[in-house]
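for the writeup, i need someone to sanity check this before i put it in the appendix. the sequnce is what the collaborator sent (i think, or maybe the updated version? ugh). structure was predicted straight from it, no edits. if anything looks off just tell me and ill rerun, i have time this weekend
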Amino acid sequence: MILKCVERLFEEPRQPGPPAPLAVRMRPGTLAEVVGQPALLAAGAPLRRALELGRLHSMILHGPPGSGKTTLARIIASQTGAQFEEHSAVDTGRAEVRAVIERARHRGSATVFFLDEIHRFNKAQQDALLPAVEEGLVTLIGATTENPRFEVNSALLSRVTVYELEPLSTQDVATLLRRAADRGELGAGLELDADAVELLAARSGGDARIALSALERAAATNRRIDLAAARDALAGGLLRYDRAGDQHYDTISAWIKATRGSDPDASLYYLATMLEGGEDPRFIVRRMVILASEDIGNADPQALSVAVAAAAAVEHVGLPECTYALAQAAIYLSLAPKSNAAGSALGAARELIRSDGARRAPPALRGAGDYDYPHSHPGHTSPQELMPAGLEGTRFYDPGEAEEALAGALARVRAARGRGGERGPGV
């Protein structure tokens, strides 16, 4: 120890490095400085009450980028007087986890172990945390942009509280931008126009880092940041899209719902979002094929052909030209009449089999009896019973209002077969 102290006397003094980015300098240090997250931090909210009482507990903070997960973790440690250990699951393994736990074991104070991107830990790494979390040796605060209920194993989830953070509102981001200017973080004499604040806040998508970084770029070359300077700082786009994460599924979900809802403009908007974000067009077109049968079905059988043709175009043409086929298919699927009768009919049949078991087909259909060949009858329709014994007359398919032609055909076939009355599934 003495030798190390002597060595430090002869070390070269450290040169000051460049200032931290504005987003880091503006990070709140107390709960009073935090903007947004009223469901978690408003007066009387559960997390706020726990912090005010100094009650540490393990948790996972789930929210989009720039919503304040790291900031909140640091404030929690500071507010409760705990030691703060920060690691990213990207470059942390079981050895580092054991080292954190060992240091916590020899401390006389509580330890907050903040693990960013906890969803990147595999099951074995997550399991290594369990004993320390269960015993209270460390207070784990995990942060993730992914849904922890899918990415974190159930054993660890049962020992933590999951808190959902929302994207910051436009007003929240505007507050942070004005705060940065008022504090002089970007130098003296900076003028920040209201319409520039509005644009930067609106284009940030609820991510404080994006807005503050754009403001910092604008301030590097302008002492007055007007609308034009803000636009220049935003050049290059601010699209936030993670093909491997929740946004990937959220956006395709939005596309499906917009297309199912017969809104071609919304369908094209979400399609454009995915394409601009670098989404794999094969992922998109697979969903188109599914929707063509699941939500349109026999209301317009051509919809499936259009979707399958778009899938072929994706494979044979590729980007960027296949985007024309995707756009064509998105518009067609949006404006096609909708029916979920086919999927509902199959679902009803499967549900009956799950609850009742699969009954044997009648002997005639198994080659063990006299099969009445339909083509031997007028209209190519036989009255022979084709359902298993005990299920005679059971009906699954109920044509939707957009399937008028099929409804008429079904009525004619049932009449020809002498099947007038209808019974519901499983009756």
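The longest strand covers residues 83-88. The domain at 37-164 is CATH 3.40.50.300 (Rossmann fold).
thx in advance!!
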